[in-house]
Amino acid sequence: MTTQICASIFVAVVFATTISALPHGFMTFFDRQNCPQGWEEYKSGRGRLIVSVTDATNSGITVGTPLADREDRTHSHRTSLSGNLPSQSIAGAGGGNTQGAQNGEVSTKIISDESPSGLPFTQLILCRSTKGDNHSTAIGTFGFFDPSVDKCPSGWRAMRSLEGRVAVAGFNEGGGLPNNAPPFASGEDRKHSHTNVVIPIQENSVSYVGIDGCCNGSPSRHQNSFNVEGTAHEASSQIPYIQLLTCGSEQATFNLSGLPDGALIFNEDVCPPGWELAYEVAGRALVALPTNGQPGAFFGGNSLSPGDPVDPLHKHYINGTIQFPATGIELASGCCAGGYSGAGYFPVEGFSTQADVDLPYTMFPMCREKSASKRDSVVRRGFVELKQKRARRNL
What we know:
mainly beta; 13-stranded mixed sheet; 35% strand; elongated
Protein backbone atom coordinates (compact mmCIF):
# COMPACT_ATOMS: atom_id res chain seq x y z
CA MET A 1 0.00 0.00 0.00
CA THR A 2 2.84 2.36 0.92
CA THR A 3 4.51 1.62 -2.41
CA GLN A 4 1.31 2.38 -4.31
CA ILE A 5 0.87 5.68 -2.47
CA CYS A 6 4.44 6.71 -3.20
CA ALA A 7 4.02 5.78 -6.87
CA SER A 8 0.84 7.81 -7.09
CA ILE A 9 2.53 10.81 -5.48
CA PHE A 10 5.43 10.47 -7.93
CA VAL A 11 3.10 10.35 -10.95
CA ALA A 12 1.16 13.35 -9.65
CA VAL A 13 4.37 15.32 -9.13
CA VAL A 14 5.68 14.44 -12.60
CA PHE A 15 2.31 15.31 -14.13
CA ALA A 16 2.18 18.65 -12.34
CA THR A 17 5.75 19.68 -12.99
CA THR A 18 5.75 18.77 -16.68
CA ILE A 19 2.72 20.85 -17.65
CA SER A 20 4.13 24.07 -19.02
CA ALA A 21 2.90 27.12 -20.83
CA LEU A 22 2.29 26.81 -24.56
CA PRO A 23 5.39 28.44 -26.04
CA HIS A 24 5.26 31.92 -27.49
CA GLY A 25 5.04 31.79 -31.27
CA PHE A 26 3.41 28.34 -31.38
CA MET A 27 1.02 27.97 -34.35
CA THR A 28 -1.69 25.51 -35.28
CA PHE A 29 -4.84 25.34 -37.39
CA PHE A 30 -8.30 26.08 -35.99
CA ASP A 31 -11.73 24.81 -36.98
CA ARG A 32 -13.44 28.18 -36.64
CA GLN A 33 -14.01 31.48 -38.41
CA ASN A 34 -11.48 33.58 -36.49
CA CYS A 35 -8.56 33.07 -34.17
CA PRO A 36 -9.51 32.93 -30.47
CA GLN A 37 -8.54 35.48 -27.82
CA GLY A 38 -4.83 35.34 -27.09
CA TRP A 39 -4.12 34.18 -30.63
CA GLU A 40 -3.78 35.97 -33.94
CA GLU A 41 -3.92 34.88 -37.56
CA TYR A 42 -0.50 34.23 -39.07
CA LYS A 43 -1.04 36.34 -42.18
CA SER A 44 2.31 35.53 -43.80
CA GLY A 45 1.05 31.98 -44.29
CA ARG A 46 -2.15 32.92 -46.09
CA GLY A 47 -2.88 30.81 -49.15
CA ARG A 48 0.08 28.48 -48.58
CA LEU A 49 0.86 24.94 -47.46
CA ILE A 50 3.32 24.56 -44.61
CA VAL A 51 6.60 22.75 -45.25
CA SER A 52 8.40 21.85 -42.04
CA VAL A 53 12.04 22.71 -41.38
CA THR A 54 14.31 22.05 -38.40
CA ASP A 55 16.77 24.87 -39.04
CA ALA A 56 15.19 28.14 -37.92
CA THR A 57 17.33 30.09 -40.40
CA ASN A 58 15.21 28.50 -43.15
CA SER A 59 11.93 29.40 -41.46
CA GLY A 60 9.76 31.98 -43.22
CA ILE A 61 11.06 31.21 -46.74
CA THR A 62 8.21 31.17 -49.25
CA VAL A 63 7.81 29.56 -52.67
CA GLY A 64 5.18 30.53 -55.22
CA THR A 65 2.24 32.93 -55.26
CA PRO A 66 -0.41 32.46 -52.53
CA LEU A 67 -3.64 30.72 -53.48
CA ALA A 68 -6.88 32.65 -53.73
CA ASP A 69 -10.02 31.42 -51.99
CA ARG A 70 -10.59 27.75 -52.97
CA GLU A 71 -8.15 28.04 -55.85
CA ASP A 72 -7.16 24.68 -57.28
CA ARG A 73 -3.92 25.94 -58.84
CA THR A 74 -3.19 24.79 -62.39
CA HIS A 75 -0.06 24.43 -64.50
CA SER A 76 0.92 23.52 -68.06
CA HIS A 77 3.85 21.86 -69.84
CA ARG A 78 5.85 22.53 -72.98
CA THR A 79 5.40 19.34 -74.96
CA SER A 80 7.73 18.01 -77.70
CA LEU A 81 6.40 15.33 -80.04
CA SER A 82 7.92 13.70 -83.09
CA GLY A 83 7.56 10.76 -85.48
CA ASN A 84 9.24 9.32 -88.53
CA LEU A 85 7.56 9.11 -91.95
CA PRO A 86 9.00 6.05 -93.73
CA SER A 87 10.16 6.22 -97.33
CA GLN A 88 8.26 4.71 -100.28
CA SER A 89 9.82 5.01 -103.73
CA ILE A 90 8.00 6.01 -106.88
CA ALA A 91 8.90 5.82 -110.56
CA GLY A 92 8.84 9.53 -111.14
CA ALA A 93 11.27 12.39 -110.94
CA GLY A 94 10.90 15.46 -108.78
CA GLY A 95 8.38 17.96 -110.07
CA GLY A 96 5.54 20.33 -109.35
CA ASN A 97 2.97 18.01 -107.71
CA THR A 98 3.39 18.75 -104.01
CA GLN A 99 0.42 16.84 -102.60
CA GLY A 100 2.63 14.11 -101.19
CA ALA A 101 4.66 14.31 -97.99
CA GLN A 102 8.43 14.12 -97.71
CA ASN A 103 9.76 11.12 -95.78
CA GLY A 104 11.77 11.65 -92.61
CA GLU A 105 11.23 13.05 -89.14
CA VAL A 106 8.32 15.36 -88.37
CA SER A 107 8.00 17.20 -85.06
CA THR A 108 5.99 19.80 -83.19
CA LYS A 109 6.06 21.71 -79.92
CA ILE A 110 2.77 22.37 -78.12
CA ILE A 111 1.89 23.99 -74.80
CA SER A 112 -0.51 21.69 -72.98
CA ASP A 113 -3.68 22.88 -71.29
CA GLU A 114 -3.71 24.15 -67.71
CA SER A 115 -4.54 21.29 -65.33
CA PRO A 116 -4.64 21.04 -61.52
CA SER A 117 -2.40 18.75 -59.50
CA GLY A 118 -5.12 16.36 -58.34
CA LEU A 119 -4.16 16.99 -54.71
CA PRO A 120 -6.96 17.45 -52.16
CA PHE A 121 -7.03 20.60 -50.01
CA THR A 122 -8.90 22.09 -47.07
CA GLN A 123 -8.34 25.72 -46.08
CA LEU A 124 -8.28 26.60 -42.37
CA ILE A 125 -7.22 29.58 -40.36
CA LEU A 126 -3.65 29.34 -39.05
CA CYS A 127 -3.31 31.00 -35.63
CA ARG A 128 -0.27 32.01 -33.60
CA SER A 129 -0.19 32.15 -29.81
CA THR A 130 0.64 35.74 -28.91
CA LYS A 131 1.52 34.96 -25.32
CA GLY A 132 2.76 31.87 -23.59
CA ASP A 133 -0.31 30.72 -21.66
CA ASN A 134 -1.19 27.94 -19.26
CA HIS A 135 -2.52 25.48 -21.81
CA SER A 136 -0.89 22.09 -21.31
CA THR A 137 0.67 20.15 -24.16
CA ALA A 138 0.55 16.37 -24.45
CA ILE A 139 3.72 14.52 -25.28
CA GLY A 140 4.05 14.13 -29.04
CA THR A 141 2.06 17.26 -29.84
CA PHE A 142 3.78 19.18 -32.61
CA GLY A 143 3.18 22.52 -34.19
CA PHE A 144 4.72 25.29 -36.22
CA PHE A 145 6.63 28.29 -34.91
CA ASP A 146 6.81 31.90 -35.97
CA PRO A 147 10.07 32.71 -37.85
CA SER A 148 11.00 35.04 -34.99
CA VAL A 149 11.60 31.90 -32.88
CA ASP A 150 15.25 30.96 -33.46
CA LYS A 151 15.11 27.41 -32.08
CA CYS A 152 12.74 24.90 -30.56
CA PRO A 153 11.78 25.96 -27.01
CA SER A 154 12.87 24.08 -23.90
CA GLY A 155 10.95 20.83 -23.64
CA TRP A 156 10.41 20.69 -27.39
CA ARG A 157 12.52 19.09 -30.13
CA ALA A 158 12.83 19.66 -33.87
CA MET A 159 10.66 17.33 -35.98
CA ARG A 160 13.37 15.80 -38.12
CA SER A 161 10.97 13.22 -39.58
CA LEU A 162 9.06 16.12 -41.17
CA GLU A 163 12.06 18.00 -42.57
CA GLY A 164 11.14 19.27 -46.02
CA ARG A 165 7.68 17.69 -45.92
CA VAL A 166 4.03 18.70 -45.50
CA ALA A 167 2.10 17.34 -42.49
CA VAL A 168 -1.23 15.88 -43.67
CA ALA A 169 -4.01 14.81 -41.30
CA GLY A 170 -4.10 11.01 -41.14
CA PHE A 171 -6.89 8.44 -40.88
CA ASN A 172 -5.27 6.38 -38.13
CA GLU A 173 -3.21 6.71 -34.99
CA GLY A 174 0.14 5.03 -34.62
CA GLY A 175 2.77 7.37 -36.02
CA GLY A 176 3.68 9.04 -39.28
CA LEU A 177 3.05 7.56 -42.72
CA PRO A 178 5.20 9.24 -45.42
CA ASN A 179 4.74 9.00 -49.16
CA ASN A 180 7.65 8.15 -51.46
CA ALA A 181 8.49 11.68 -52.59
CA PRO A 182 11.90 12.92 -51.38
CA PRO A 183 11.92 15.94 -49.04
CA PHE A 184 12.10 19.43 -50.47
CA ALA A 185 15.43 21.19 -50.34
CA SER A 186 15.04 24.59 -48.72
CA GLY A 187 13.18 26.88 -51.12
CA GLU A 188 12.81 24.17 -53.79
CA ASP A 189 10.16 24.70 -56.45
CA ARG A 190 9.80 21.06 -57.42
CA LYS A 191 9.15 20.16 -61.04
CA HIS A 192 7.64 17.12 -62.72
CA SER A 193 7.17 15.84 -66.26
CA HIS A 194 4.95 13.48 -68.24
CA THR A 195 7.02 11.01 -70.24
CA ASN A 196 6.10 8.47 -72.94
CA VAL A 197 3.35 10.63 -74.42
CA VAL A 198 1.84 8.95 -77.53
CA ILE A 199 -0.78 10.65 -79.74
CA PRO A 200 -2.16 9.15 -82.98
CA ILE A 201 -2.27 11.26 -86.16
CA GLN A 202 -4.95 10.90 -88.81
CA GLU A 203 -2.89 11.42 -91.98
CA ASN A 204 -4.10 11.64 -95.59
CA SER A 205 -3.33 9.21 -98.40
CA VAL A 206 -2.45 10.30 -101.97
CA SER A 207 -1.98 8.45 -105.25
CA TYR A 208 -0.18 9.31 -108.46
CA VAL A 209 -0.73 8.59 -112.16
CA GLY A 210 2.17 6.23 -112.50
CA ILE A 211 3.73 3.22 -110.79
CA ASP A 212 5.55 2.87 -107.53
CA GLY A 213 9.08 1.57 -107.57
CA CYS A 214 12.53 2.80 -108.51
CA CYS A 215 13.97 5.25 -108.03
CA ASN A 216 12.62 8.41 -106.38
CA GLY A 217 12.69 7.70 -102.62
CA SER A 218 11.60 11.13 -101.39
CA PRO A 219 7.88 10.38 -100.80
CA SER A 220 6.65 8.85 -97.56
CA ARG A 221 4.54 5.73 -97.14
CA HIS A 222 1.02 6.15 -95.77
CA GLN A 223 0.43 4.22 -92.55
CA ASN A 224 -2.93 3.19 -91.20
CA SER A 225 -1.66 3.99 -87.72
CA PHE A 226 0.90 6.77 -87.26
CA ASN A 227 1.85 8.12 -83.85
CA VAL A 228 3.89 11.03 -82.61
CA GLU A 229 5.66 10.45 -79.34
CA GLY A 230 7.50 12.58 -76.80
CA THR A 231 7.50 14.27 -73.43
CA ALA A 232 5.63 16.97 -71.58
CA HIS A 233 8.74 18.64 -70.18
CA GLU A 234 9.46 19.55 -66.57
CA ALA A 235 7.25 22.21 -65.03
CA SER A 236 6.30 23.36 -61.54
CA SER A 237 2.88 22.50 -60.11
CA GLN A 238 2.75 26.12 -58.87
CA ILE A 239 1.56 25.01 -55.41
CA PRO A 240 2.80 27.65 -52.92
CA TYR A 241 4.19 26.98 -49.47
CA ILE A 242 5.93 28.61 -46.54
CA GLN A 243 8.70 26.93 -44.54
CA LEU A 244 8.17 26.96 -40.77
CA LEU A 245 10.17 25.59 -37.86
CA THR A 246 8.29 22.55 -36.58
CA CYS A 247 8.78 21.23 -33.05
CA GLY A 248 7.28 18.40 -31.00
CA SER A 249 6.56 18.44 -27.28
CA GLU A 250 8.61 16.17 -25.03
CA GLN A 251 6.59 16.98 -21.90
CA ALA A 252 5.99 13.74 -19.99
CA THR A 253 2.23 14.08 -19.86
CA PHE A 254 -0.75 13.00 -21.90
CA ASN A 255 -2.78 16.00 -20.85
CA LEU A 256 -3.88 18.46 -23.52
CA SER A 257 -6.41 20.72 -21.89
CA GLY A 258 -7.63 24.27 -21.89
CA LEU A 259 -6.88 24.98 -25.55
CA PRO A 260 -9.40 27.32 -27.18
CA ASP A 261 -12.44 25.91 -28.94
CA GLY A 262 -11.73 24.64 -32.43
CA ALA A 263 -8.03 23.87 -31.98
CA LEU A 264 -6.73 21.14 -34.31
CA ILE A 265 -3.52 19.60 -33.03
CA PHE A 266 -1.10 17.25 -34.76
CA ASN A 267 0.44 14.42 -32.74
CA GLU A 268 3.34 12.16 -33.62
CA ASP A 269 1.53 9.03 -32.43
CA VAL A 270 -1.94 9.14 -30.81
CA CYS A 271 -4.61 11.61 -29.79
CA PRO A 272 -4.46 12.29 -26.03
CA PRO A 273 -7.35 11.44 -23.68
CA GLY A 274 -10.44 13.51 -24.42
CA TRP A 275 -9.36 14.08 -28.04
CA GLU A 276 -10.22 12.23 -31.25
CA LEU A 277 -9.10 12.08 -34.87
CA ALA A 278 -10.42 14.90 -37.05
CA TYR A 279 -11.69 12.55 -39.75
CA GLU A 280 -13.20 15.23 -41.99
CA VAL A 281 -9.79 16.70 -42.84
CA ALA A 282 -8.01 13.32 -42.98
CA GLY A 283 -6.09 12.76 -46.18
CA ARG A 284 -6.13 16.42 -47.21
CA ALA A 285 -3.36 19.01 -47.40
CA LEU A 286 -4.10 22.02 -45.21
CA VAL A 287 -3.87 25.49 -46.73
CA ALA A 288 -3.58 28.48 -44.39
CA LEU A 289 -6.77 30.44 -45.01
CA PRO A 290 -6.33 32.70 -48.08
CA THR A 291 -7.23 36.39 -47.97
CA ASN A 292 -11.05 36.70 -47.88
CA GLY A 293 -11.27 32.90 -47.94
CA GLN A 294 -14.05 30.70 -46.62
CA PRO A 295 -12.83 28.77 -43.55
CA GLY A 296 -13.33 25.02 -43.82
CA ALA A 297 -13.77 24.95 -47.60
CA PHE A 298 -12.78 21.73 -49.39
CA PHE A 299 -11.42 21.75 -52.94
CA GLY A 300 -9.14 19.85 -55.29
CA GLY A 301 -9.10 16.08 -55.70
CA ASN A 302 -10.36 13.20 -53.60
CA SER A 303 -8.81 12.62 -50.18
CA LEU A 304 -5.58 10.66 -50.09
CA SER A 305 -5.69 6.94 -49.41
CA PRO A 306 -6.18 5.86 -45.77
CA GLY A 307 -3.70 3.03 -46.36
CA ASP A 308 -0.31 3.46 -47.94
CA PRO A 309 -0.27 7.01 -49.29
CA VAL A 310 -0.75 7.03 -53.05
CA ASP A 311 0.00 10.31 -54.76
CA PRO A 312 -2.88 11.64 -56.88
CA LEU A 313 -2.27 11.57 -60.62
CA HIS A 314 -3.17 14.16 -63.22
CA LYS A 315 -2.89 14.51 -67.00
CA HIS A 316 -3.00 17.29 -69.57
CA TYR A 317 -4.98 17.80 -72.77
CA ILE A 318 -2.71 18.46 -75.76
CA ASN A 319 -4.12 20.18 -78.82
CA GLY A 320 -2.13 21.56 -81.75
CA THR A 321 -0.92 20.73 -85.26
CA ILE A 322 2.01 19.05 -86.95
CA GLN A 323 3.30 19.67 -90.46
CA PHE A 324 4.12 16.95 -92.96
CA PRO A 325 6.40 18.82 -95.41
CA ALA A 326 5.71 18.37 -99.14
CA THR A 327 7.85 16.64 -101.70
CA GLY A 328 7.56 17.53 -105.40
CA ILE A 329 6.75 14.74 -107.87
CA GLU A 330 6.49 15.14 -111.66
CA LEU A 331 3.43 12.87 -111.83
CA ALA A 332 -0.19 13.96 -111.64
CA SER A 333 -2.41 12.78 -108.82
CA GLY A 334 -4.61 9.77 -109.60
CA CYS A 335 -4.41 6.06 -110.43
CA CYS A 336 -2.57 3.87 -109.79
CA ALA A 337 0.52 4.40 -107.63
CA GLY A 338 -1.10 4.60 -104.18
CA GLY A 339 -0.32 4.38 -100.48
CA TYR A 340 1.67 7.60 -100.15
CA SER A 341 1.27 10.11 -97.28
CA GLY A 342 -0.26 13.48 -98.02
CA ALA A 343 1.47 16.73 -97.17
CA GLY A 344 -0.05 19.44 -94.99
CA TYR A 345 -0.93 20.33 -91.41
CA PHE A 346 -2.66 17.69 -89.30
CA PRO A 347 -4.31 17.95 -85.87
CA VAL A 348 -2.51 16.67 -82.81
CA GLU A 349 -5.16 16.03 -80.17
CA GLY A 350 -4.96 13.78 -77.14
CA PHE A 351 -3.79 13.48 -73.55
CA SER A 352 -0.46 13.18 -71.83
CA THR A 353 0.36 10.22 -69.65
CA GLN A 354 -0.58 10.54 -65.98
CA ALA A 355 1.92 11.75 -63.39
CA ASP A 356 2.05 13.08 -59.85
CA VAL A 357 3.54 16.40 -58.78
CA ASP A 358 5.93 14.73 -56.30
CA LEU A 359 4.77 16.69 -53.24
CA PRO A 360 6.51 15.23 -50.15
CA TYR A 361 4.09 14.68 -47.27
CA THR A 362 3.65 12.58 -44.15
CA MET A 363 0.30 11.65 -42.60
CA PHE A 364 0.08 12.16 -38.83
CA PRO A 365 -2.89 11.98 -36.47
CA MET A 366 -4.68 15.34 -36.30
CA CYS A 367 -6.78 15.65 -33.19
CA ARG A 368 -9.70 17.72 -31.96
CA GLU A 369 -11.36 17.82 -28.56
CA LYS A 370 -14.23 15.29 -28.36
CA SER A 371 -16.60 17.87 -26.93
CA ALA A 372 -16.06 19.90 -30.10
CA SER A 373 -18.34 17.49 -31.95
CA LYS A 374 -21.30 19.34 -30.48
CA ARG A 375 -20.03 22.78 -31.43
CA ASP A 376 -20.36 24.72 -34.62
CA SER A 377 -17.71 23.52 -37.06
CA VAL A 378 -16.56 25.17 -40.29
CA VAL A 379 -14.87 21.89 -41.25
CA ARG A 380 -18.11 19.93 -41.01
CA ARG A 381 -19.97 22.55 -43.03
CA GLY A 382 -17.28 22.40 -45.71
CA PHE A 383 -17.32 18.60 -45.67
CA VAL A 384 -21.10 18.48 -46.15
CA GLU A 385 -20.83 21.03 -48.96
CA LEU A 386 -18.21 18.87 -50.68
CA LYS A 387 -20.39 15.75 -50.47
CA GLN A 388 -23.38 17.65 -51.86
CA LYS A 389 -21.31 18.90 -54.82
CA ARG A 390 -20.12 15.38 -55.60
CA ALA A 391 -23.65 14.02 -55.33
CA ARG A 392 -24.91 16.63 -57.82
CA ARG A 393 -22.01 15.85 -60.13
CA ASN A 394 -22.93 12.14 -60.16
CA LEU A 395 -26.61 12.72 -61.00
